[in-house]
Amino acid sequence: MHSTENMAARSLRAAILAGVMLASVLGMSSAAAQELRDIRPSDSPLVLKSRGSFFVGGEQVEKTAIELGSLGPDDRITINQMYVEYMVPEGAAKASVVMVHGATLSGKTYDTTPDGRMGWYEYFVRKSHPVYVVDQIGRARSGFDQSAFNNVRAGLTLPDQQPNLLRLADRFGSWTNFRIGPQPGKAFPETQFPVEAADKLSKQSVPDLLGASRAQNPNWKALSDLALHLNGAVLLTHSQSGPYPLESAIINAKGIRGIVMVEPGTCNAKAHTDDEIAILAKTPMFILFGDYLSSPTGLPGPSWEERFNDCKALKKRIDAAKGDMRLLATAEAGIRGNSHMMMMDRNNLQIADLILAWIDEKVDR
Amino acid sequence: MHSTENMAARSLRAAILAGVMLASVLGMSSAAAQELRDIRPSDSPLVLKSRGSFFVGGEQVEKTAIELGSLGPDDRITINQMYVEYMVPEGAAKASVVMVHGATLSGKTYDTTPDGRMGWYEYFVRKSHPVYVVDQIGRARSGFDQSAFNNVRAGLTLPDQQPNLLRLADRFGSWTNFRIGPQPGKAFPETQFPVEAADKLSKQSVPDLLGASRAQNPNWKALSDLALHLNGAVLLTHSQSGPYPLESAIINAKGIRGIVMVEPGTCNAKAHTDDEIAILAKTPMFILFGDYLSSPTGLPGPSWEERFNDCKALKKRIDAAKGDMRLLATAEAGIRGNSHMMMMDRNNLQIADLILAWIDEKVDR
Questions:
Q1: Is domain A4-26+42-364 classified as CATH 3.40.50.1820?
Q2: ipTM score of complex
Q3: Is B278's pLDDT higher than 90?
Q4: Per the CB 3.0–4.6 Å rule, which of A232, A360, A363, B142 could disulfide with B83?
Q5: pTM for the full model?
Q6: Touching B: A residues 202-231, CB under 8 Å
């Protein structure tokens, strides 16, 4: 079990970390048509056995008319459900992969890149994996519980009791924190991020209830449940959601066939008990970082190098428990220029191939 | 390229695999798995020329650190962008269709139904239409401007200046207002709504900034722009978004090849000038209502019958201006039992066929 102190420290660390958003060197991006016009057509058709969307979990709760927005009488809504969209490729399928985005973003993270190239969602499907992309509970199509906001509006609770709505922004949230460049508007010479589309990354940002106090992040159990319902899945997470699969596995590891953490905001190396580490050591894990880890983030909180070192410390504990964890900074493997948003970088399919090869070896074989 | 033979073999394989998948899915017994377990496999593969997502519009605005959620310094974000996901079928395409959801919902409205059947999004694609599904600006993956909330939280503005976050709820918002039944929990004997999945409709609801004052709804121009960027599209809207295409056409009708309004919340019959009516009369329009229009909504505001009559009044003005508007209540056409959410009703594909036939006749011919 996690102590209250651990939870609080974890929430704070998580709040400081994740990242989201955008950049814009280009100033006024003129034609609004750019976004559509940028889309690059596929070379070959995509053949799907099935596709669609559904929800995981959710609790029915009673709300007052004020909490609901004062349209009608007191009534019941559902909260804490997780939206999931999926594509299953035609033909024999490899392991299912669940993709989870970072702070103040949505499942859009894994779809078409800001400059119009194929994202990991479609690419993994084309590589024979059924893929399930979620919106984290607390934002986007998963929604959030608006009650606390409407109660403040009505004067029933005090403003300082209202949850914080986090939004990461262009210059510091993206350019420096996402390591597109050493300072806002200035890219690293070797950056793989499609710098000309940085202002389109900005559009992917949504308000995020990260700051709302909650005893346990409801995404942890939802992901554990989803993996179970899929009869086994690899959880692939990013940034804020990076450490979620660790918690999901501690709740119930049965459905979790593998864990891929892309630039996790934290590895919580010291937060877990030895018993928890013993559980985690049973699932193969792959943690992937990009380049320029020591570059200043421009935000409070740890550097990406410190986060990488935290994951090193976790690997040490997992190794000691005879687990199977791979930790890689792409620059160490001779791949230069990757940002925090490597699913959008120009070499995003090269990075995907690293992950696909690992899944082939550790899960599908 | 795939030969026809390959495609046929593939279809057969898909049908067999689908059966296997269904059997395996039905084997699961966890109650929480319902949402996934309900999904009905496709009879044949879906072959897409392309798919993906992008944004329309958006403005870059400067925000204070407090407005951003106090993680970093003052910075810039993008607001008022519209998220769009799309699928383009392989083969010769008919008219593009843009689908827009109603209040406190998202683009999920048009995807897999609450009881796991194919939604209009995929069905229209299978009927050779490229389809573009949006999240309205102000919710879901399009996000919203969180500044006013964070300023209230910080004590910089008064609580009553905070926007209202509307949420439609189960008993009155759905059962009576959506005309599943005459009172909460009691279905009409002939209802087409999948009553056993009513609780899953509840999960689609997200907070909606409807109550925020704005001089002009930013969705109007975004839809006009999107139709233009697509080099022509039919705008298909529902409920709250029902009347949006009228405003989009008045802004710029050039890209709007047809308008389909499914149970519009209003037709604003008296709101438009004669000059505006003359503009609207140039675009073919189809307005569709369901059954039980006089049943009490359980909420303040007009009944659905009054809304239908408002659309009748608009049709009178459009007819007088020599326009082409069809107005149909499905019950009048001998189709009984349709609710407000007819894209989710059991006969949702029958209703879709009515719309597809109209598009064939008025737009594609």
A1: yes
A2: 0.91
A3: yes
A4: B142
A5: 0.91
A6: 202-208, 210-211, 225-226, 228-231
